[in-house]
Amino acid sequence: MRNNLIERRNEARIIRRIVAIITLIALLAVGGVGFIGYNYVKSALEPVDPNNNKQVAVEIPIGSSTTSIGKLLQKEGIIKNGTIFKYYVKFKNFSGFQAGNYKLTQSMTLDEIAETLKTGKLVREALFKMTIPEGLQINQIAIIIAKHIDMSPEEIAKKLDDPETIKKLMKQYPEILTDDILNKNIKHPLEGYLFPATYSFYEEKPSLESIVDEMLSQTQKIVKNYSSTMEEKKMSVHELLTMASLIEKEATEKADRHNISSVFYNRMDQGMPLQTDPTVLYALGKHKDRTLLEDLKVESLYNTYIHEGLPPGPIANAGETSIEAALNPADTEYLYFLAEYGTGEVHYSKTLQEHNALKEKYITNKRD
Q1: Which domain range does residue 309 map to?
Q2: Domain check: are 115 and 229 in the same one?
Q3: Are 228 and 341 in the same domain?
Q4: CATH number, domain with residue 72
Q5: Which residue of 28, 211, 270, 339 is surrounded by the most CB atoms within 10 Å?
């Protein structure tokens, strides 16, 4: 009996130890899960990448719920967790999010994102804005970019022509940067692809890569708007931007780009060379107030006086108005146009005889 009692005491002692160990393990497990959960939530409330100021275009559809907005922002990489975003904005009493197109960054806090969606405006002020006017060429754009980064215009232009740079960008933007830009006769592969606009930047010295990325993203966005028309007309992105660049360089403030577009298409339909002076100047690589007869003889595929059809590629960066006109020329029989000396008023004609008469009236006589 004494032995049985001792044995039962030993068993009870062992059982108590086992229960204590199991309880301790359970407490540690709960604590561990809580610690992990705390860190997970804490991480999800922080910016995805505090150092990444690259803007991402996000469209919030009309009628979007907080849940769907959270999922969309997570999908676009703007936040880490859509569910936590949902409960966070509820806890902070954020409401009245507005539908629309936004440009958000991974460096933004949840408060900044929520405030932006609520007001429809970016919470942070841009450190600087860079405006690229319509009609500029690569070398001119390089001069503007050089004012904001630690690179000279020559270094920027060289980098933008670098085969490795082009190869990398073609992988990032396969919809717009195709093998067409690799044509050996093209002066600058990215000519015509850096969209003219005003860009906002949120870091003092952005990289050239981030600036170019902004511009190519905008080009891709604009071109995508006309994808169905391009498909209908069987027109490639390269052809579209090339035609648009000719219209851009020929158009004055008073010009109807759709009429200019019609002249170019009418000429091509009749097998006539486009004969547009800006292509000659591009071939020469210089700006001149007047194109001389000797200039028209320059041997270059860009010279549309001696080569029919479009040049190898764009000769400048066109704005959306010229891009739209390149796809939708006016229905005319015009084959010629000229800008009136002094006023910029554009006059159109159907025959060479009419054109010469207008030239005499609006250019020669006015110059004299």
Answers
A1: 224-367
A2: no
A3: yes
A4: 3.30.1490.480
A5: 211
Specify whether 21 is located in the same domain as 62: no
Are 228 and 362 contained in the same domain? yes
DSSP 181: G
Q: Is there a contact between 305 and 273 (Cβ–Cβ < 8 Å)? A: yes
Q: Which phi and psi (to 5°) does residue 60 adopt?
A: -95, 110
Choose the most confident range, by mean pLDDT, from 62-66, 87-91, 92-96, 303-307.
303-307
Q: Which of 119, 134, 156 marks a domain boundary?
A: 119
Note whether residue 331 is domain-resident: yes
Q: What is the DSSP string of 192-203?
A: TTS--SEEEESS
On whether residue 49 sits in a domain, the answer given is: no
Q: What digits encode the pLDDT tens for the residues 126-168? A: 788 899 999 999 999 999 999 999 999 999 999 999 999 999 9
> Does residue 257 lie within any of the structural domains?
yes
- Quote the CA–CA distance of 324 and 220 in Å, as a whole number: 14
Bridge pairing between strands 198-201 and 336-339: unpaired
Place of tokens 């022509």: 161
Q: For residues 216 and 195, what is the distance between their CA atoms, to the nearest angstrom?
A: 7
User: Do 238 and 337 belong together in one domain?
Assistant: yes
What share of the chain has pLDDT > 70, as a percent?
A: 87
Residue 193 lies in a domain: no
pLDDT, average across residues 244-273: 93
The encoded tokens of residue 330 equal 């006016």
Q: ∠ CA 133-107-173 to the nearest 5 degrees?
A: 50
Contact 29, 71 (CB under 8 A): no
From start to end of 54-99, where are the E strands?
Answer: 56-60
Residues 234 and 322 in one domain: yes
pLDDT at site 98: 84
Whole-number pLDDT of residue 117: 87
What does the pLDDT read at residue 21? 55
Name the one residue in this structure whose structure tokens are 């490639």.
Answer: 236
* pLDDT tens sequence across 9-39: 555 565 555 555 555 555 555 555 455 555 6
Indicate whether 4 pLDDT > 50.
no
Q: 3-class DSSP state for residue 311? A: coil
Can you give the pLDDT at residue 1?
A: 44
| H or E segment and range at residue 129 | strand 128-131
Number of domains comprising the chain:
3
Helix (H, G, I), strand (E, B) or coil at 368: coil
